[in-house]
Amino acid sequence: MSKPISGGARDRVPLSRERVLRAAVEVADAGGLGSLTIRSLARELDAKPMSVYYYVSNKEEILDGIVDLVFGEIDLPSPGGDWRSEMRLRAISARRVLGRHPWAIGLLESRATPGPATLRHHDQTIGTLRGAGFSVEMTAHACALLDSYVYGFALQEASLPFQGPDTATEVTEPIMQGFSPGEYPHLVEMATEHVLRPGYDFGDEFEFGLGAILDALAAWLPADGGRRPS
Amino acid sequence: MSKPISGGARDRVPLSRERVLRAAVEVADAGGLGSLTIRSLARELDAKPMSVYYYVSNKEEILDGIVDLVFGEIDLPSPGGDWRSEMRLRAISARRVLGRHPWAIGLLESRATPGPATLRHHDQTIGTLRGAGFSVEMTAHACALLDSYVYGFALQEASLPFQGPDTATEVTEPIMQGFSPGEYPHLVEMATEHVLRPGYDFGDEFEFGLGAILDALAAWLPADGGRRPS
DNA sequence: GTGGTCATCGTACTTAGTACGAAGAAGGTA
DNA sequence: TACCTTCTTCGTACTAAGTACGATGACCAC
């Protein structure tokens, strides 16, 4: 009856802070932040709720931890390389990562204590720009601009009820049903003449805006700096 | 004993969907999204929890509703005016509003059903750009770029543990304590030589990046379009 | 006053976070 | 072998939150 071995909890991979956080990411990926509870997390780990608390002191710490895990997935720019392509790749990677973990975007707002992956990420980004000749001040401007764009774009993508090309129709249709005719004329024009056209994919807007921003940054470089003067 | 009049619930302003949502915004403003519960909301309304459910069918509907209320606070651009200043004012207004209601940013991610204020807002924005001569396609690009920037900037501001000029020191200090020396050299440089200097205010970055984006948009106008070619 | 609709609320059930401390496993020491 | 310590895991139980269900009283038409 009280035989300890096998079945229940024995002889499986032991828990660890690492495993707890990774499992938390998986649960959130699968069902959104709302589905991440201590109990669902314990189920995913094949353990009991209170076991989790041996590795984290509360749920807040889990949220801080998974945000940092997500940051760790973003490709780091290398301070040696061409700043434009490094920043471009970093932005593209960040957008992809945040697309995989959309719940992380909303979490950023309430989390004030950055983890090590987050800090290293910013350190490398700043380093790349400084190494390319941007002044400290312009580097700050550039980071604020780039990060804002990436986060904001990911946020918009996450709040879109559809994803990928040609998927907008079924979702916008019911919303537009409720419109009084002529209530939102420009919105309707935009929808019918552009967004609902076959082949449209909101995600394609990303590189367009990114290019514009990088062009703007190039103009901030002291002397020769910006090749491609637009 | 069962006298109905006064004191308890009688003779006070009757509830309404409007009042419920406005009270919800106040509760969230005061204590964050986490403090917004049906019970805290009922307390704010001087009513009992279940009374709220006469006006909304569940908490999700409250969240949708307060996001739309927040959107309604943003100044609308007027399709007649100069597109550049209209977009500038809209962005500044949006940032200020999201600064007042930082919890709204995180909510955007999970809310897929836009309310009337949100729809009107986008309609007017599109209309202003179209009226200024932007093609449908370029208007889409412009909206994506501008909105991303505004949301992303607000998100970064919200996740900053400090706010306003000269408030960074006390918060970054304890974080930097934990650094191994030389672990984040560029971050340290940025902090000591710029961010922690007296007078620095992250909020000032906003107009800088905004100007760069508006310059970029101007270049997308067909012929004469962009005065101020940077 | 009888019936009906509107607005408010009391009760109670479910789920979530988590405090507290028990209990088993593993290893040391006498 | 007996006993003690430490590391993990978990059982129990308390509190708070969302909300289903139905009761209760106010107000109105007849």
Classify the helix fraction of chain A into a percent range.
55-70%
**How many angstroms separate the termini of chain A?**
76 Å
Order of helices and strands of chain A: HHHHHHHHHHH
Low-pLDDT windows of residues of chain A: 1-10, 225-230
Shape of chain A: flat
Radius of gyration of chain A: 22 Å
Give the integer mean of the pLDDT values of chain A.
Answer: 89
The biggest sheet of chain A, with number of strands, parallel, antiparallel or mixed sense and barrel status, is: none
User: Regarding quaternary structure, how should these chains be classified?
Assistant: homodimer
Query: Largest contact between protein chains?
Result: A-B, 67 and 67 residues
Report the β-strand fraction of chain A as a percent range: under 5%
Number of strands of chain A: 0
DSSP helical segment count of chain A: 11
The SS-based structural class of chain A is mainly alpha
Question: What is this structure's SSE topology?
Answer:
Two copies of one chain form a homodimer.
Chain A: H1 17-31, H2 38-44, H3 49-52, H4 59-73, H5 83-100, H6 103-108, H7 116-131, H8 136-159, H9 169-177, H10 185-195, H11 205-218
Chain A binds a DNA duplex (30 and 30 nucleotides) through helix 3.
